[in-house]
Write a structure and sequence with these properties.
The protein is of the alpha/beta class. It has 15 helices and eight strands.
């Protein structure tokens, strides 16, 4: 298949949810380090060809994702396959996971080559759109909480695009813009909104997106009229039209924030916004809540999440690169917008440890645990805390 060939070339070049015991984990024959979780349609038979939906999670929770959407896949007789290896990080590693999953799945299961769908959440959505853009043979993409990992394509795409965003998702504006650009270019596009944060959408919302995607590629003999009626009823609550001027204003605000982060990252000391500036932004957002308007509440939640997510992700990148001064500036922003976050305290401990400051490292670790940090294994294995190995207080914190 064309898209499998492309992935081979690329690789050569380069929520707490109930689990379901009936969802098996399959190891790939060609690479046992790669696996996926699978849901097969009821009365599955190799004598029949089935549509397939491949899903990508940003932290490799394939079985969780399969458990969340297995009912929708079964109701529409889809094979649902979710990677247990694809995660946020280098795109090449996710493409490697996808390649192993595709190769194994097409060897073992009876898949309709004309009904191949990809879906993902956040970084997983970017994996799905990257594969669809750079490959052939994809019928549709369901992108949740994020769009493309590059500039939004303007020409008409050869696949359908269903976007899903929460009203409190920091990528809400991004998906609004993606939908507008794709529609203007002639791509068959749909956008569903649900009340919620940056997360995999509720099962009923995803079900509506899956049904919409499937109906854009009707098969002979299917009861399309009944499915069209179901789609109208199921998707109506989530088809919310947002004024273009509101999106433009929100986009402008996020561009202002992105510029403030850019000053931190390029170490332009003269232009770096002060702690007071960031506190002022938080105060201004808080004033909007005084109106008790639900739209304002969602707007504020999105902007705070946008700032927090950018600060957190950038901290990780700069800390890993050994640029601790820049990481400290980014942590200052996190501290303002997430003052009680256990992760913020833990990261303060990391920076203190890098400076050899034993007292502050222990203080911040203690505060991290007090505020809900529970990953003692991470703490125990963190190289930065190596100099604390013989410290009785540190050892007590690990218990």
């Amino acid at each position: 298949m064309r898209f499998l060939l492309f992935l081979f070339l690329i690789i050569e070049a380069s929520l707490s949810l109930a689990q379901t015991d009936s969802i098996p984990t399959i190891k790939c024959d060609a690479d046992s380090t790669q696996s996926y979780s699978i849901c097969l349609p009821p009365n599955y038979s190799k004598a029949q060809k089935y549509p397939v939906l491949f899903l990508f999670d940003p932290v490799a929770r394939g079985r969780m994702v399969a458990s969340l959407y297995q009912k929708a896949s079964r109701d529409y007789s889809f094979i649902l396959i979710a990677s247990n290896n694809s995660r946020n990080g280098p795109m090449s590693e996710s493409l490697n996971a996808a390649n192993a999953m595709f190769t194994d799945a097409f060897k073992k299961y009876s898949i309709d080559d004309s009904q191949i769908y990809l879906g993902g959440f956040s970084g997983g959505a970017r994996v799905a759109t990257t594969i669809a853009l750079q490959s052939g043979g994809i019928a549709g993409v369901i992108a949740c909480g994020a769009g493309f990992g590059e500039e939004i394509p303007k020409p008409k795409l050869p696949f359908t695009f269903a976007g899903i965003a929460g009203t409190r998702d920091f990528n809400y504006v991004e998906l609004q813009q993606v939908a507008a650009v794709l529609q203007a270019g002639g791509t068959t596009t749909n956008l569903l909104l649900f009340k919620g944060p940056h997360a995999w959408p509720p099962a009923d919302v995803f079900r509506a997106a899956l049904l919409w995607s499937y109906l854009q590629h009707p098969k002979p003999g299917a009861d399309n009229a009944a499915m069209e009626k179901e789609l109208h009823l199921s998707s109506a609550p989530y088809l919310v039209k947002v004024p273009a001027d509101a999106i433009a204003k929100e986009s402008a605000y996020q561009q202002k924030i992105a510029e403030a982060f850019r000053f931190i990252m390029v170490n332009s000391a003269i232009d770096i916004k002060s702690k007071g500036w960031w506190k002022g932004e938080l105060s201004n957002l808080g004033k909007r809540l005084l109106k008790h308007n639900p739209d304002d509440s969602n707007y504020v939640a999105r902007q705070k999440a946008f700032i927090s997510a950018n600060a957190s992700e950038s901290f990780g990148n700069y800390y890993s690169a050994g640029r601790y001064d820049t990481a400290a500036e980014l942590l200052l922003v996190s501290e303002i917008f997430e003052p009680d976050s256990p992760v913020v305290f833990y990261r303060h401990a990391l920076l203190s440890a890098k400076e050899g400051d034993e007292d502050n490292a222990l203080y911040y670790l203690e505060q991290a645990i007090k505020h809900g940090f529970t990953n003692k294994t991470q703490m125990r294995n963190e190289p930065a805390f190596g100099f604390l190995k013989g410290n009785k207080k540190y050892l007590a914190l690990l218990n």
